[in-house]
Amino acid sequence: MWLLLLCLVVGLFFYYLPKYNAWVARFPPGPPVKPFIGNMLNYKAAHMADSNAKWGKDFDGLFTVFVPLPIIMIHDYETVREAYVDNGNAFSGRIYRRALEALIYEKDTGVLNSNGDVWREERRKALTIMRDLGMGKNVMEEIVRDSLREFVDHVDSLPNHENVDLRWPIQIMVSNVINEVLFARKFAYDNCEELMNFVTLMKKNFDEISFSPLFMLAVAFPFIIDLPWLGYRAVGRHKENTMKMMKFVVNTVDSVLAEQPLETEADEHRCFVHAYAHKMGDQIEKKQLYATCADFFMAGQETTTTVLRWAVLFLAKFQDSQKRLRDEVHSVVGTERLPSMTDKNQLPYAHSYMLEVLRFANILQANIMRVTTEDTVIKGHRISAGSAVNGDIHYIMSKDPHFEQPEKFMPERFLAEGGQSLKKELVDRVVAFSIGKRSCAGEALARVELFLALTTLAQQYEIHPVEGQEIDLTPTQTFVQFPKEQNVKLVKVNRS
Ligand code: HEM
């Protein structure tokens, strides 16, 4: 019996091997693949960025990696621009596989994971509403500054500034911005268990999926999802976590909608949910509203929080650049009021510092995957419609030859001669928000948050390593590169 089974498996293997090899040959060349499992054994979450950097060099900027789903990696800045900007439409799809439903509210909903008309409509609607609410300027800026004011008050009130954990204060400060924008709600610093549970669950899902070959197999071979036990281990348990997070978003949206009927024009602008409901009237599709809010709530806090947590460590580690940043902020803004976006033109070093934080933190080991919507040709390689593709923004920021000594933290690298303006060709290569039609929908808000948070931190505190400790800048080896948890020492800057 066992012998028969073995013969059957071996027979199938040799029958399908030539077909598999012929299929592999249809993609742009890449590192050698093992039959059926592709590059899974030598492409691990922990070293994904290093593998991409090596293969990108070996295969002249474009290669296919099989995990075991084939992904065409587009490596250098010029080629990513050729694909994502010059051929923007062809590269505007988001990959859909059944297993990936484990990470989303529902297929064909929201902005981040939808495609075609749903994506175009939801993204356009969301950006119009955000713009009307003042994204990237005035109203939004005031929301950010309010949140920063509360952050500073909270940090000032902490009993021991010698050894401060800024992880949760930063998270709450960032969450309160998106919470206020979407729902006109705020988390209190001393009562935010709901937020902590949400964030802990989100991180657990990221971490578990990053390290799960079983999940990757289920992405390529969906029948695994239907197998008892294995299907649950591969996908079901992650979906359960996602649905718990969705429950929080759905309940919040419902309770905001139930608050009061909209009566005045001002009500329409109270928050995203009200503006969306007003805009759609009877046409409202609740599942789209839930999914779009979930996308903005999740994408709008974890990324910005992680970058700011890195920023605190860079400030503590690199004292000279911290001092230069503070001196500039003090000379332009003083200490009596918090920085604002109108100060930005007079704060070229602070602007450079923010760009260097984004570049050096480089929080995504790989960009969010896309899919081609039509046949296309990039760098002479034919790429057929429906191929999974990924523009390697991590490589561009960590190794593009335009950045001299990219392994060093040097905010001044962006300053043009005279120190008053920035070098555009370098600024363009800070692609943390990606480029093209599917680039980050919250970029304008994120830039305001990062600039104001950074300048406020430098204005208000001297940030040092805790006495006797060194700052460790080794990231966690997950898809999102988090800093290791570590405290800092704060010295409040006296008002002059
Ligand atoms: C430092 C902070 C942030 C970083 C580094 C970041 C980065 C990114 C990246 C790399 C993408 C994928 C782009 C692509 O497919 O090529 C993305 C997409 C997205 N981001 Fe952000 N993001 C940040 C903050 C935010 C904020 C604050 C929001 C919401 C307010 C947001 C909402 C979104 C949404 C909705 C998408 C999906 C866009 C689409 O598929 O059309 N992000 N972001």
What does this structure look like?
- With 496 residues, the chain is α+β, with helices and mostly antiparallel strands.
- The chain has a domain at 96-348 and 420-431 and 442-492: Cytochrome p450.
- The protein contains 17 helices and nine strands.
- It has helices at residues 2-24, 48-58, 77-86, 116-132, 138-157, 167-183, 193-210, 213-220, 230-258, 265-268, 272-280, 286-317, 319-333, 348-361, 393-399, 424-427, 443-460, and strands at residues 62-66, 70-74, 93-94, 370-371, 376-378, 381-383, 388-391, 461-465, 488-492.
- The strands form three sheets. It has a five-stranded mixed beta sheet with strand order 1-2-7-4-3, with helices on both faces. A two-stranded antiparallel sheet has the order 5-6.
- The chain is globular, with a radius of gyration of 24 Å.
